[in-house]
Design a protein that fits this description.
The chain is mostly helical and 152 residues long. It is 51% helix and 7% strand. It has a two-stranded antiparallel sheet with strand order 1-2. Helix 4 crosses helix 7 (135-150). The relative contact order is 0.11.
């Protein structure tokens, strides 16, 4: 993370001293003003974050991440099953997990419902599966899929 004084120096060096209209510095903060017409030029230095009214309340960017911990004994079984997977094919786990989540779809529950529930809870695929009590079923599915692909 860059310090405020260094950002001001870089702006003045690269874009000129007349861009920054006012500077107030303390020991820990730097506050400065500039004309709005320079916002595009300053994006590189300030790295702004986009906020707005059109962002869904269920957007992953707006929701807090949940610290969900899968118990060690369950993770041990998961790691045993995935150990047959070559290191360069770890992406296959993500695909298999997504395909398993699709098997949860039925007349009452759509993929959109599952995706929204995952977003509301702030969980990723395997954490979500564990949280809804489908862990053993998922491990069986994962084992079968990996054995079909990588068992010699």
């Amino acid at each position: 993370m860059q310090r405020g004084r260094n950002i001001i120096k870089a702006i003045e060096k690269d874009l000129g001293k007349n861009i920054i209209q006012y500077i107030q510095q303390s020991d820990s903060e730097v506050f400065f003003r500039f004309h709005a017409k320079y916002i595009k030029d300053l994006e590189v230095y300030l790295k702004p974050v986009k906020n707005g009214a059109n962002i869904s309340p269920f957007s992953n960017n707006n929701l807090p991440k949940t610290k969900y911990t899968i118990p060690d004994e369950d993770l041990y079984t998961y790691k045993e099953i995935t150990s047959i997977l070559p290191q360069n094919r770890l992406i296959d786990i993500a695909h298999i997990t997504k395909n398993y989540i699709k098997t949860l779809i039925n007349k009452k529950i759509s993929m959109e419902d599952i995706t929204l529930d995952m977003a509301k809870k702030g969980l990723k695929g395997k954490e979500y599966i564990h949280s809804i009590g489908k862990w053993e079923d998922y491990l069986s599915y994962l084992k079968k899929e990996l054995n079909n692909k990588y068992d010699s």
